[in-house]
Amino acid sequence: MDNYKMQISPGTTIQLRKPKMLERKYELAIGEEVVGTIVLPKVFGTLAYVCSGKEEWSLERKGFWKTYITLRKKDQETDLLKFSFGRMSRRLLSFTSSNGEVYDLVKEGFWGRTWVWKKNNVILMRLHMKYGIKKSGEITFVQNDPMEVILMLAGTYAMLLKQRDEGASAGGVTAAVS
Questions:
Q1: Residue 135 carries which DSSP code?
Q2: Buried-most residue among 6, 21, 121, 133 (CB within 10 A)?
Q3: 172 vs 157 pLDDT, higher one
Q4: Would you say 38 and 48 are in contact if contact means Cβ atoms under 8 Å apart?
């Protein structure tokens, strides 16, 4: 999995933007240059196609009691990675690499909308999601890591699912109360 590397300098900020409101396509960009995309082809499904550079993968949330996200090469059936959803409200995702390094996507601060990817408790990047019709965000790189592109894509995907699920829950509560 080393051929997906894109060298991103610490301090670099990547913008998450949704160019067309009615499409389920998101762009990750540095300035005007698009460095990655996330496409959710179905309204209610969790399958997403993600790409960065020439590499393409699929991400999908699976499981019922113990949910997880799988990462696969596009159009392949073999899981390359499994990200487990955290049981606590402060940890969203977690996985352990083949050499035993632990990666966690955890909430930064109590009220904030910022999440951080940590490796063995060292911050690698910050993901800050903005709410609203356009659904935008920023990913800021703090330290280099061989997994940074995968972390960026999987973390952004998880945040998009989280926003969608929270919106559906709020809508269901509103409908039930009305």
A1: -
A2: 6
A3: 157
A4: yes
For the segment 110-123, what is each residue's pLDDT rounded down to a tens digit? Answer: 776 789 999 988 99
H or E stretch at 26: strand 25-30
Contact at 8 Å (CB) between 67 and 83?
A: no
Residue at token pair 């389920």 = 24
72-96 pLDDT, tens digit per residue, is: 998 888 888 888 877 656 667 888 8
Judge contact between 72 and 79, C-beta under 8 A. yes
Q: What ranges do the domains of the chain cover?
A: 9-166
Please, are residues 16 and 137 in contact by the beta-carbon 8 Å criterion? yes
| pLDDT for the residue 121 | 87
Question: One-letter amino acid identity for 27?
Answer: E
Give the count of beta carbons closer than 10 Å to the beta carbon of residue 86: 15
- pTM score, two decimals? 0.82
Report the distance separating Cα 21 and Cα 1, nearest Å. Answer: 33
